[in-house]
Amino acid sequence: MTAALQAPATRASSFGIGRTLRLGAARIGYETKVYFRQSDTLFFTFLFPVIMLTIFSVAFQGMGNIGANPDGSGGISQAAGYLPGMIAAGILLSGVQNLGTDIAMERSDGTLKRLGGTPLPVLSYFFGKMGQVLATSLLQLALLLLVAHFAFGVDLPTEPAKWMTFAWVYLLGIATSAVLGIAISRLPRSGKSATAVIIPPILILQFISGVYLQFALLPDWLQSVASIFPLKWMAQGMRSVFLPESFAAVEPGGVWNLAGAAIALLIWLVGGLVICRLTFRWIRKDS
Amino acid sequence: MNAIDPAVSVDKLTKSYGSFTALTGVTFDIERGETFALLGPNGAGKSTTIEILEGYRDRSGGEARVLGSDPQRGGLAWKARIGIVLQSSGESGNVTVREQLTQFAGYYPNPRSVDEVIAAVGLEDKANTRLKSLSGGQRRRVDVALGVIGRPELLFLDEPTTGFDPEARRHFWELIRSLKREGTTILLTTHYLDEAAQLSDRAAVIAAGTLVAIGPIDTLGSDEARTPIVRWLENGIAREQRASDPGRVVAELVGRLGEPAGLEIVRPSLEDIYLGLVGAYEADLASRASHTPRPPSASSTPSASSTKDQVSA
Ligand SMILES: Nc1ncnc2c1ncn2[C@@H]1O[C@H](COP(=O)(O)OP(=O)(O)OP(=O)(O)O)[C@@H](O)[C@H]1O
Ligand SMILES: [Mg+2]
């Protein structure tokens, strides 16, 4: 039998960065489509912050406004008080929880093994995941803002400077979350244990970082512990955007400390990138 | 890359999982354009071998070259030239057959047409069905489709037809033959020996991590093991005789008995030869383990289950 092989059309140049980006873009569409077809992630990641905002706003309505005068006037509504924390929680869920469990499952069900046998660059796979996180989280964010504004009458900021702050806190936060999600996906030993390993720490983090409980009311030592993690800084950054200036007084040190937020998030982002670069493998060899 | 290099070259390949040795020095080459079957009982080391060649597992010793590269270091350009069908895969499957194939086609520089591949595996009716709603055999056909979508030079198939119905298997054989005609090199493992006989040019039999036989399908096993058997009934008693010239034996029988009752000439099938080889190897291992002298190789006698080339009176 003579080997009439097709010319191996594999010039080295065709495997460059352009191809990586093109395949990454193709992965974003694919990943986002798959995301919205999974009913469990849709509930626990996508709708969760909106549902929690609704529950808290309705449940605590009777307690009156936050930061009100003794006669009940002034202050902000419960919904307005919870909105920044829920936005921050949404960022964390869309990145860390979503990717952490998703990639752990893909590792155990053979998806990654299959991809590892194809000429798909790891970087394109990462771009796909990050693009999916960005796309779904933007939709989640839009939904949160719409519900807060139209269902609960929360006034959104009008100053462009506030929205600038919002943009960079959001982008830095979502990038950090996505990268940490990829990094943390190594931890669960099987797909079945993925949610059990990843969701509880994230839930605890939400409680100590000012999402469900007012950060100012937590004991100092707990505030210090929370300050190690990125969620506290995202929530604080979001409070600086959505709460009146006067609320800065109850923050640690009496200021929003946006510089601190930027530094903390950047450290986590870079650390996460290094971990991904060093530890990500398509498969555990010999499994 | 040299055109006369073998597509796959394996030399004294060994693999240990901890203290367990799964491969003990396996050596073979696969020429370009050849279809090569790797046969052996469960746990023999077929998937271990094939996954070492695919780059999924690291070998413990020996040499391996696949399309001119060390599979442990195969880059993207190398992966673009191979196609892989793993023994098992179970993605969650929230995409349709067509979506999945279109996505994967994009990874390769020179992919096949998606519709052509869907037709080749007989999934036209299910092209827009999500993977999770497919039956087991249909999902397996998607695995095969994903293995060939990139127009690979070298295709690895680890028990590709598990769960196929007979018609799907014939369909699959046609697909493999058309790939062969295009010059694709194929490494196949299967427990269906008729499939190996139909498709492959050469086969290797491994048992307990050791190569026990290798060669063109029709030369596997000892001459004796491949000798046809003549069977007949004489005075109600079943008789058989091995003969390289069965026609002469039958003529003699007819001369002696008239029309012999229950006459058949059985040519040992690949399955018979395979069972003889593996049985002999296992008996050998067992006898060496118990330090008793090796029994006469009676086990290489083919079983009577053969149906190939059967002539009944
Ligand atoms: N990851 C692993 N860790 C430890 N032992 C393994 C591992 N993978 C395979 N083995 C062992 O190595 C041997 C060969 O396994 P392999 O999967 O290669 O067999 P096989 O020939 O493909 O069998 P089958 O026909 O059942 O697919 C078996 O005894 C198996 O238990
Ligand atoms: Mg196997």
UniProtKB/TrEMBL annotation, chain A:
The main location class comes to: membrane
Q: Which Pfam families did the record assign? A: ABC2_membrane
Q: Name one GO cellular component term.
A: ATP-binding cassette (ABC) transporter complex
Per UniProt, the keywords (alphabetical) are: Antibiotic resistance, Cell membrane, Membrane, Transmembrane, Transmembrane helix, Transport
Any one GO molecular-function label of the UniProt entry: ABC-type transporter activity
| ABC transmembrane type-2 domain span | 40-286
Q: Which domain of life is it from?
A: Bacteria
Protein name as annotated:
Transport permease protein
Q: Which organism is it from?
A: Subtercola vilae
Automatic annotation (TrEMBL), chain B:
What ranges does the record list as Low complexity composition bias?
A: 286-307
Q: Name one GO biological process term.
A: response to antibiotic
List the Gene Ontology MF annotations in alphabetical order.
Answer: ATP binding; ATP hydrolysis activity
Q: Which UniProt keywords apply?
A: Antibiotic resistance, ATP-binding, Nucleotide-binding, Transport
Give the CC-aspect GO terms. Answer: plasma membrane
The main location is membrane
SMART domains given for it?
Answer: AAA
Q: Where is this region: Disordered?
A: 286-313
Whether Glycoprotein counts among this entry's keywords is no
**UniProt xrefs under CDD domains:** ABC_DR_subfamily_A (cd03230)
Membrane topology label: Peripheral membrane protein
**Residues annotated as domain ABC transporter:** 8-233
User: Which locations, inside or outside the cell, does it occupy?
Assistant: Cell membrane
InterPro entries for the chain: AAA+_ATPase (IPR003593), ABC_transporter-like_ATP-bd (IPR003439), ABC_transporter-like_CS (IPR017871), ABC_transporter_ATP-binding (IPR050763), P-loop_NTPase (IPR027417)
Gene3D superfamilies this protein is in? P-loop containing nucleotide triphosphate hydrolases
Q: Which domain of life is it from?
A: Bacteria
Q: What is this protein called?
A: ABC transporter ATP-binding protein
